[in-house]
Amino acid sequence: MFRRKDGLFQEILIINGRRKYFYGKTKQIVLQKIQEFRQTEEHGEMFRKVADEWWNVHEPTLAYNSQKNYMPALKRAIEAFGDVPIKSIEPTMIAREISAFSHGRADKTVRTQLMIYNLIFRYAVEKGFVLYNPARDLSVPRNLKKNKRTSPSPEDIRRVKESTELPFGMFAYFAMYTGLRRGELLALEWSDVDLKSRTISVNKSLYYEGNKPVIKLPKTQTSIAEVPIMDVLMKKLPKEKKKGIIFSDEDGNYLTETRFQALWKKYCLQAGISASPHQFRHAYATMLFEAGIPPEEAQALLRHAQLSTTMDIYTDLREAKLKRIHEKVYSVDIE
After folding, report:
1. H or E stretch including 279?
2. Nearest partner of 164 among 150, 146, 177, 149, judged by Cα
3. Whole-model pTM?
4. pLDDT tens, 265-318?
5. What letter would DSSP give residue 181?
6. Which phi and psi angles does 48 have, rounded to 5°?
7. Which class for 206: exposed (0-12), middle (13-18), buried (19 or more C-beta within 10 A)?
């Protein structure tokens, strides 16, 4: 070990035929770095370091709300395995952690926790920290409580159809007949609507940081979806070419959070509607189910990241339909 002209101490080791340099303000710091390096070489990186590295890469690609949802799950994962060498983490260890975490928690919360483990280990495989993803084949415990997705009532659906002339009435109509999420609708521009091909290009989304609207663009071209325009919606669209944001404020700008809430609340009071915008997206999923659209195609139209999300909706709809059939059968009799 020697001291350089800049005052730092330096040690050079030959590792696998290559030179490895270690620097520090004191000899003790250099020796500590050498010891940490040898431990890492023997046992691999700690889970905490890989998880932090994954987050630094992944976080800039996430929407504001996704960041808020992912951060608690990331913290819990680091609390559980932070000081454990990532190479030594096995499927049974993660399964045990997920099982303990699931007690008293909702299905979606537990799924998010497992997804975070999957994303971290998938990154670890890509970077060569581990040879395989120990969370890949794991699933959440059965019979966890779920927040049931509900469609609007038949009365709400009728009122949406009859109230398109009200201020903001077309927002609910669009939601019901396109299945777009709130953020996708609020980001929609007339240039995204192609009347000739009868498609709507879903190429961006709006989310809020506080009250401020922020536009999120897709990470890749494959993230852009083309949604077909149904006949009932086609009849309501203007025939002449229009420009600008479809659902904007008086100055043609994106709606703030407070402005959107005010417009939606006023519309619901005038139309007598009690459903949320997301419930009308569920009504669209119901129409796809009733039309016999296969789950794989419905997934593309609904832009679900995972087929399991679409399958959950279809399962709920099948069970509800079967229940209605049973109720009819109960009263059948021969005269």
Report:
1. helix 277-290
2. 177
3. 0.61
4. 999 999 999 999 988 988 888 888 888 888 888 887 887 767 777 777 767 777
5. -
6. -55, -45
7. buried
